[in-house]
Amino acid sequence: MAEFTVGDLLVAGISITDGVFDGTVVLLLDADESGTLGVVLNKVTQIDLSSALPTWAGMVSEPQALFDGGPVSQQGAICLAEPWSEAEEPPGWRAVSGRIGLLNLDTPVEIAEGTYRHLRVFAGYAGWDAGQLERELEFDMWHVVPALPSDVFDPDPATLWRRVLRRQGGELGLLSTWTASAELN
Q1: What was the pLDDT predicted at 181?
Q2: Using CB atoms within 10 A of its CB, is residue 139 exposed (0-12), middle (13-18) or buried (19+)?
Q3: Which residues lie closer than 8 Å to 175 by C-beta, 6 or more apart?
Q4: Pairing of strands 72-83, 66-68
Q5: How far apart are CA 81 and CA 135, in angstroms?
Q6: Average pLDDT by consecutive 10-residue portion of the chain (185 residues)?
Q7: pLDDT at residue 38 in the model
Q8: Are 152 and 41 a contacting pair, CB within 8 Å?
Q9: How far is CA 160 from CA 30, 41, 52, 56, 179, in A?
Q10: 66-68 and 142-145 as β-strands: parallel, antiparallel, unpaired?
């Protein structure tokens, strides 16, 4: 069975056709004995970010949009950020993996301005109860792959799933050419 850790990517397998996670790439943010959680990196919402979080809207990376982090707690927001400085941890920021971390949106915007190279806001998150993700991995519903820092703030989220698979090479790389139309496979 595939092992996973915080900072890894979960790439949806072709068997996921639930309308929620099809073709998604999830960054794992937390994993312990009670379960696992992450955010979907490649789904943009139709919600206007400048209406939802007007003070943060001008600071987010391209595309400047509110992302759909997953089906759990969609009324809440999670912010991922990469600080400019590698020498310090800015107020309200906590590292998740390398220089990618969670930024508390209660942090005064004045403190955050000019502090982050990249910033992205997600409505909701993806969550798995204890053992649930492990069972889904046994059925190849997800593929665990290493994340690149650029994956988290990718400016072209619509093609992220295929590009992440392609760079894996081998059988996973071949999945990047998969299409839902069987006659085209």
Answers
A1: 63
A2: exposed
A3: 13, 14, 143, 165
A4: unpaired
A5: 31
A6: 88 91 97 96 94 93 95 94 92 94 95 95 97 94 95 96 95 85 57
A7: 98
A8: yes
A9: 22, 8, 25, 24, 15
A10: unpaired
Q: Which two tokens stand for residue 3?
A: 């092992």
Encode the chain in three state secondary structure. CCCCCCCCEEEECCCCCCCCCCCCEEEEEEEECCEEEEEECCCECCCCHHHHCCCCHHHCCCCCCEEECCCEEEEEEEEEEEECCCCCCCCCEEEEECCEEEECCCCCHHHHCCCEEEEEEEEEEEEEECCHHHHHHHCCCEEEECCCHHHHCCCCHHHHHHHHHHCCCHHHHHHCCCCCCHHHC
| Both tokens assigned to 7 | 């900072």
| CA-only gyration radius of the chain, Å | 16
167 vs 114: CA distance, rounded Å: 32
Q: Which amino acid is at 104?
A: N
Distance CA 48, CA 36 (A): 29
